[in-house]
């Protein structure tokens, strides 16, 4: 699976943290004339004689388009759509599911949908679009032969990612200023301001992104985690690990004997596969977990790691984290 941006095993993916999907209308916008163009995340301009309407999209990117009223004809996901945090609460009626495992896409079924555009995030580190990276089934890569591919680059900000998909949706005919759709962005903007106010009130509060497993503890490197970079930008002191793995700089890997190398005031769990209630269970299996003062104090909350794509989901996660910050103690890690 996609090991470079995940330390999760296939087994743990089934335990994903419940997410909050959007409820925006998924009615297709009125057909628009052409020509059409969009500057994709890799810097290339993708063009078509008419505005694409039969779109196949990767899971998170599909959720982003649907939040603006653009309904794809097909979706390929990295896991079951029932557990995918981007999709689990969306109405997928009428959408063909083309895959529910990373690197496995039913290209024959995709071809039957006669797509005129494929949408996926552009990953600069791998120089590939979502689902078409190195390591996927060669048959799956043939998806790229069915239609032009476009998407927004994963970079230094989820805010930028959401804005990029707003622009893509607008180019596809979405009425992004529709009151129901615009309300999601307005809620997000209010959530950002509340988050900034919470962190300003606690300027010494430190946090660390972590993903503990039975064998190791992984400390997230914000440089490769756009959500954490946003949090830093908005005032939360998320720790930068001192020695990220050379071959895998997204994390610093610690043995359980060294689990207490960092002492943040707040631990941000990898929210894709763990719930805060698992904290105590990890402590039973790995007593050194409680050598981290924040773990012992129960100063633990979920971090929406690597999955956010929409203003609405980002607003929901920011609101949750803001509540935690408001109740946090800046002296836990001392």
UniProtKB/TrEMBL annotation:
InterPro entries the UniProt entry points to: ABC_transptr_periplasmic_BD (IPR002491), Bact_iron-sidero_bind (IPR051313)
A biological process from GO: iron coordination entity transport
Pfam families associated with the record: Peripla_BP_2
Tree of life domain: Bacteria
Record keyword Signal present: yes
Extent of the signal sequence: 1-26
Any one Gene Ontology cellular component term annotated for this protein: outer membrane-bounded periplasmic space
Residues in Fe/B12 periplasmic-binding domain copies: 44-332
Cellular compartment(s): Cell envelope
Keywords in alphabetical order: Signal, Transport
Family listed: Belongs to the bacterial solute-binding protein 8 family.
Protein name, UniProt field: Putative ABC transporter substrate-binding protein
Taxonomic source organism: Actinoplanes missouriensis (strain ATCC 14538 / DSM 43046 / CBS 188.64 / JCM 3121 / NBRC 102363 / NCIMB 12654 / NRRL B-3342 / UNCC 431)
Lineage per the UniProt record: Bacteria, Bacillati, Actinomycetota, Actinomycetes, Micromonosporales
